[in-house]
Amino acid sequence: MSADLVLINASVQSMNPRQPIFQAVAIRKNKIVKVGTNQEIKTLIGETTKIIDLNGKTIVPGLIDTHIHVADFGKCLLWLDLTRAKSIKELQNLLRKKAKQTPSGCWIIGRGWNPDRFKEKRFLNISDLDVAAPNNPVIFYHETAMICAVNSVALKLAGITVETPGPSGGTVDKNLKTGKLTGILRDSAINMVWKVVPDPREDELLDATALACQKLVEAGLTSVHWIMLSENEISIIKKLHDEGRLLVRVNVIVPIEFLEKTVGFPTSDNLMLHVGGSLIAVDGYLDSKTAALSKPYSNDPNNNGKLLYTTQSLSTSIGRVLAKGFQPIVQAMGDKAVDTALNAIEQMAKQASGKSVRFRIEQAALLNSQLAKRLKTQKIVVSVQPKVIATEFSVWSATENLGIERAKWLHPLRTLLNEGVKVVGGSDCPMEPLNPLLGIEAAVLREDFPEQRLSVKEALYMYTIDAAYSSGEEALKGTIEVGKLADLVVLSHNPMDTPTNEIKNINVEMTVVDGKVVYSKYS
Q1: Gyration radius from the chain CA atoms
Q2: Residue 354: what pLDDT?
Q3: Residue 229: what pLDDT?
Q4: What is the DSSP letter of 482?
Q5: Could you report the per-residue pLDDT of 33-52, keeping only the tens digit for each?
Q6: Are 32 and 477 in contact (CB under 8 A)?
Q7: pLDDT band for position 423 (50/70/90)?
Q8: Domain 282-454, CATH homologous superfamily name and number
Q9: Which letter does DSSP use for residue 376 in this model?
Q10: DSSP-assigned states of every residue in 273-318
Q11: CATH topology for 79-194?
Q12: What is the C-alpha to C-alpha distance for residues 187 and 113, in angstroms, rounded to an integer?
């Protein structure tokens, strides 16, 4: 029987250690039916077979993002893109144009500015935004998403004045000379304004999230672990699935608060959409100093962060997740939180003995040698976002906040791999850029504590076969092998042969999901 689609004259990086490289791939319906030489694949070409000659381009397994907020990414696509603004004047021109198209009083949101790119080499301030949009509330996020600039209208709607104290873990900037508000909010202070921003209508969010799905396949993603943040995403996901607009395979991760609201989702037998796991957050975040540490933050001696669960209460929550047949995904940032997570998982693993359960810790950011060994002993999958790691050092100043000895144990990926721990990769988009190749590059470059760098192949495993393993789907995807789902990505260059600081610039030329070409730069 002939193939429906064949890809020939390629460098096929199968990510299968036993048979790593081929020339061509044949697909029938939604499965890979043959990998081999061009000559071997030609035996499956029939009258109706579509043939794509890739002229030496590289094929890798479909990339998998294990931590992404798709609906929030969709919302961001409705915002102004400020990444190309090379000066404050350029940014003001973008804002003026948007203000003319936006009714008075309606919010204007943007993201991606960075003073390092501005000709003026300074932060935005309140007057910059007031001049360009005097009648609309404006909130413009810095590209790190932990800083924003707002105008006077936005501050007034949020009730923020010079007398308003900054919240715990956040700062409302004031001019050192005049004491007036600068319009810059940092960390948790951003929520003081964000809480008064209205949500988009459901039809707007539906279309925006569908656009986000298109962006996913353009980035070479064929599967995502969609971390839900709000209950209204349930209906969005179902509608996109029913309308055939998901485009990628979706493993939904529901917060434990929404655990009972998953009725009506397709079962795990559905290869395009199912609820795979439930997220339980044990502590807060490093950037707000709410991650739970065994010893205080180095520059905040009275603060150990915030532990949200005891071992027993976490065990009870994990039990609820297991009872639903879902994967427990425990989010733990600080070493104290990771210790609590491991204690609870060890307790519940005994109860789940005999069942095929893969426990996963999201982040496991701050570790020590004992915790690293326990992660291996308890066969925990660790899910990280490599670009977030870079941000924690470059923006959050991890070494200053934790001290150099502890900072050495912040996301020690090489150490974990050497211990035999499965580590998988995601983006945390929209908090960080979507591009999975950027995440791969970040894991390979690792500028802070470079002894924790990974090889390109190891980083690719994080987004392919190991990512599939993390959700118990390694028999279905993650490598290019006969019998596996036909999820493939064509890249302009082979990441293995590309200078490490140029991996992020590799172009995605084609994405195949379920045997169908869902994106191609040639069409």
Answers
A1: 24
A2: 59
A3: 94
A4: T
A5: 999 999 999 999 999 999 99
A6: no
A7: very high
A8: Metal-dependent hydrolases (3.20.20.140)
A9: H
A10: EEEEEEEEE-B--TTTT-S--SS-BTTBTT----B---HHHHHHHH
A11: Diaminopimelate Epimerase; Chain A, domain 1 (3.10.310)
A12: 16
Q: Which residue has the higher pLDDT, 152 or 202?
A: 152
Query: DSSP assignment of 176-214, as one string?
Result: TTT--EEEEEEETTHHHHHTTSPPPPHHHHHHHHHHHHH
Question: Quick one: pLDDT at residue 79?
Answer: 95
The pTM (predicted TM-score) of the whole model is: 0.92
d(CA 306, CA 367): 17
Q: Which residues of 294-303 are buried (b: 16+ CB within 10 A; e: fewer)?
A: eeebbeeeee
Sheet strands side by side (includes 58-61) = 21-22, 11-13, 58-61, 488-491, 508-513, 516-520
- 130, 151 Cβ separation under 8 angstroms: yes
H/E stretch holding 222: strand 221-227
Phi, psi for residue 502 in degrees, rounded to 5 = -120, 5
User: Which of 319, 321, 326, 327 minimizes the C-alpha distance to 348?
Assistant: 319
Residues 408 and 448 sit within 8 Å (Cβ to Cβ):
no
- pLDDT confidence bin for 395, thresholds 50/70/90: confident
Q: What confidence score (pLDDT) does residue 134 get?
A: 97
Domain boundaries, the chain: 79-194, 282-454
Structure tokens at 206: 């539906």
Instruction: Please state at what angle helix 202-218 crosses helix 70-77, rounded to 10 degrees.
Output: 100
